[in-house]
Amino acid sequence: MAIMGILSSLFNPAIKDPIQTVGTILDELFTSEEEVLKQHILKARLVEQSAQIQAKISELSASHRSVFVAGARPFLLWVCGFGFLFSFVVNPILQWLWPEIGAPELPLEVMLELTLGMLGLAGLRTIEKINGVAK
Prior knowledge:
By secondary structure, this protein is an all-alpha fold.
């Protein structure tokens, strides 16, 4: 009989749930190296599959004849580019020339996140090149 079965038979049923809860928590805290390795392999496979699926979706949408399908990324990059141009070039010049005019606040954090993500500047491309995966 398992240890959990022995302990639960010694105590009344009201104690059984806390003992199982503590056992579950201890099991989660102390995982073997084999379990950790399996989890890492599974995560790596999921990341690889999602990257392949996203690459296929991007390829299909970019080859579409309609500008509404193929033009989404270029449109967003142009919007972010104009936003950065305004925020870092035009707006400072306007503030310097006419300081009494208030300038609008642009969501630079969102634009930066979107631009870096779409350009692939998250560092993953460099890792691919180092590992020889990139062509």
